[in-house]
Predict the 3D structure of the following.
Amino acid sequence: MIGLVLAAGAGRRLRPYTDTLPKALVPVGPEGAEDSITVLDLTLGNFAEIGLTEVAIIVGYRKEAVYERKAALEAKYGVKLTLIDNDKAEEWNNAYSLWCGRDALKDGVILANGDTVHPVSVEKTLLAARGGDKKIILALDTVKSLADEEMKVVADAEKGVQKITKLMDPAEATGEYIGVTLIEGDAAAELADALKTVWETDPQQFYEHGYQELVNRGFRIDVAPIGDVQWVEIDNHDDLARGREIACQY
């Protein structure tokens, strides 16, 4: 199993940082600190802590910044990095971005969004949930109060995920998908095909629509509740401030 990070996004709501950096490299350490850690640093640290030695990173917007740091990140976290170019990063949404990493999926991956600050307990929870016939397991926050923007999930104890979308009454949701997934290698081909169906239908779709496509085809997707842990998806400057508060705890 390897790590896989989606780090191709522009993150325009985080300007001026993202004038020169992809969102995954926006600093989340103390404001103004030199060589501050980034979301990518935190994610690679988590992967290293659970014993992963290889990580694929899907890059696109301002990818040169990731290429420039590649050797230093490999040395710091003791992992081998493979960078995968997304040629549509500034035009299309992340269903296509994850599809670009379809070959990496064959090894089995822990996938992490490049804008999610979270503790290593999330990866450990996914690994602990692994086994049996489970092929895809979503990290799910069942504690947080939900609103309109969150990626909400309805999950059934017997049937697994039934629905995953932002367009849902929060009261109906079992919880929020936090952007971290364990994907077994034998799910790779089916997931890649579902993602291709999604982005060919609408290039602006999220990769979570690929999960929904699988569910609609009768594929079982499981969830693993992460408990009461501090995490944040960094989309704007308020999120970034929260990310800095959380990052210093880890």
Summary: The helical segments are 39-49, 63-77, 94-100, 102-105, 121-129, 188-201, 208-216, 237-247. The radius of gyration is 17 Å. The first strand starts at residue 2 and ends at 7. The chain has one domain: 2-247.
